[in-house]
Amino acid sequence: MVYLLNEYHMDQVFATNVINIWSGTTNFGPLIGAYISDAHIGKFKTLAFASIASLLGMISLTLTAAIPQLRPPRCTKIQLQRDQCMGPTKGQLGILYMSLGFLSIGAAGIRPCSLPFGVDQFDSTTDEGRKGIASFFNWYYFTFTIVIMIALTLIVYIQDSLSWVWGLGIPTSLMFCSIILFFIGTRVYMYVPPGGSVFSGIGQVFAAAYKKRGLKLPSEEELPHVVYDPSVKGTTITSKLPLTHQFSFLTKAAVVLEGEVGEDGSRLDKWSICSVQQVEEVKCLLRVIPIWASGIICFTSMSQQGTFTVSQALKMDRHLGPKFQIPAGSLGVISMLTLGLWVPFYDQILVPRLRKITKHEGGITLLQRMGIGMVFSILSMVVAGFFEEKRRASAILHASPDGIAPISVLWLSPQLILMGLAEAFSIIGQIEFYYKQFPEHMKSFANSLLFCTMAGANYLSSTIVSIVHGNTGKDGNPDWLDKNINKGRVDYFYYLIAAMGVLNLVYFLIVASRYRYKGEVPVEGEDTPIDIELSKAKHIDN
């Protein structure tokens, strides 16, 4: 955001839309990357291709900082005060967008495959392997957190205080080194071949259900006798999903008609008949979608941290002592610190006490945890609007040439702390919710849902910004998102997001109260398959 505002001289609406659309594309990409990896080329090749794409993106972005012709000319103080800085040309924007595109392609492959590929290196059938996997998870997330903290502090400080060439060149060099290390281990890696994508299974269920749309289902008592429900013993499935009566139109996909099952019990056409397990897996997905949708507006609040919060910080006193100035892009570390401090407190101190009261293993349910996160996200936007109102009033009152309000940037801490708490409850709650509510066959798909939520939030945020910018500022009223933040009313924008959050919370409470949790039957206790009676299923006469 700072790079686009200061080096490309974009107004905050344009820069915000660029960030949101790029972030949305980057967050949506892992769903595609997971499909390509699972169905076609495997994790290693996906990681290799994605890593090279990321490196190309970093090199291109670094070149925009190193070569003056690839970005607009620098602004003079007079041009800056008069808001007459020259914007980027189409060619310069093209290079920038190409760089961001390569980074999105890289993220699409690295995000869904890096952790699973690491887990593939352990033998999960042995105690030693399972311990190694647990240790790997801990070190993976520990390293990830440390890297993000370094990026938000040291790297951002170099970008802000030294130069963008160094600030972008250092991550580019580190990316190059990581690729070399990755390929050095090529001969010792364990390679798990692609086992097929979950999307094909989902497609088979819908196709079979559509073909049998005219089928009349028998009674609930007779239904178990006419569906295809083979044993899953001997497969990788450890828990079987029982037949449910919700979404009955999908249940038709499992009803056996004559000529669909061979003498050995196998399916003759996978697109005409599906197992109960397959059908129930798709039902799990449909049950989760309303809950998933409620997270989009919650994440829309969180996405403001990297856009308008940075714009606020640039117009506040960022000095910490006489010499040190806090980089505007480093403020996100406050949310991360809040998250890092709250999670162990919640897990080690609060949950045991709540468990005694509620008798629930997690202290509170995952849906309750997600709801609390939504409340914190709403409060964060309300507090953000309040402090933006004070900041703007101070900037107008003192009317300094650079438009900076004599208010410490640390006054943005309350909204960032609240947002950190929102992330602690909502994001972690969603990750665990998806993990527990999807069968093991769909875990990779479940892991991608969080990124899809973020993508939806980024796209929604961009849409809201465009609508607000296009419809305010008329009839003498201020443009809420004016390129000069002191002339705009970003506080009103924050209040709008908060109001949307309240409506979203009401929606969430409704769908959460109606949610049916996934049921499971251990494979060891699985009943013997029931003989199928074809006569119980028949078509409706048209």
Provide an overview of this structure.
The protein has 15 helices and eight strands. The chain is mainly alpha-helical. It has three domains: 1-196, MFS general substrate transporter like domains (Growth Hormone, Chain: A, Up-down Bundle); 198-274, no CATH class; 287-521, Growth Hormone, Chain: A. It has a two-stranded antiparallel sheet with strand order 1-8. It has a two-stranded antiparallel sheet with strand order 2-7. Helix 2 packs across helix 4 (90-119), helix 5 (127-162) runs antiparallel to helix 6 and helix 13 (413-437) packs antiparallel against helix 14 (443-471). It is globular and about 85 Å long. The termini are far apart.
Mean pLDDT: 84
CATH architectural grouping of the largest domain:
Up-down Bundle
- Overall tally of structural domains: 3
- Please state roughly what percent of the residues sit in beta strands, choosing from under 5%, 5-15%, 15-25%, 25-35%, 35-45% or over 45%: under 5%
Radius of gyration: 27 Å
State the distance separating the first and last CA atoms: 60 Å
Give the name of the CATH superfamily of the largest domain. MFS general substrate transporter like domains
Q: What does the overall shape look like?
A: globular
Trace the largest sheet across and list its strands: 1-8
Q: What proportion of the residues is helical, as a percent range?
A: 55-70%
Low-confidence stretches: none
Output the number of helix runs: 15
At the first level of CATH, the class of the largest domain is: Mainly Alpha
CATH topology of the largest domain: Growth Hormone, Chain: A
Largest sheet: 2 strands, antiparallel
Pattern of helices and strands: HHHHHHHEEHHHEEEHHEHHHEE
Class by alpha and beta content: mainly alpha
Question: Can you count the beta strands?
Answer: 8
